[in-house]
Specification:
Blueprint lengths: L1 E3 H5 L4 H15 L2 H4 L1 H22 L2 E9 L2 E8 L6
Antiparallel strand pairs: 1-2, 2-3
Helix pairs in contact: 2-4
Length: 84
């Protein structure tokens, strides 16, 4: 699942929006009831990453969340220039 920066820009609270989208996606995978601590940890992490992208880098260009064999990968591309 990928959420674009343009999609995030439509929401006053991007971290809350991403948290809800990810929660729905994890529920669709059947994780909502069986692993509530796991899901809450994932939601906290994604919320913090998005908040940090907005607070320290001016925003997020995209957010990708993937699930494979029990592992969730969260990637946030921010708008800050690369540092050398």
């Amino acid at each position: 699942m990928t959420i674009t920066g343009a999609e995030l820009a439509k929401h006053a609270t991007p971290a809350r929006y991403v948290r809800e989208v990810v929660k729905l996606q994890l529920a669709a995978l059947g994780l909502a009831d069986d692993a509530s601590d796991y899901v809450e940890s994932v939601l906290l992490i994604v919320s913090e990453l998005v908040t940090n992208a907005y607070r320290h880098a001016g925003g997020a260009q995209s957010i990708r969340v993937t699930y494979d064999t029990g592992n969730v990968t969260i990637e946030v591309d921010d708008t800050a220039p690369l540092r050398q």
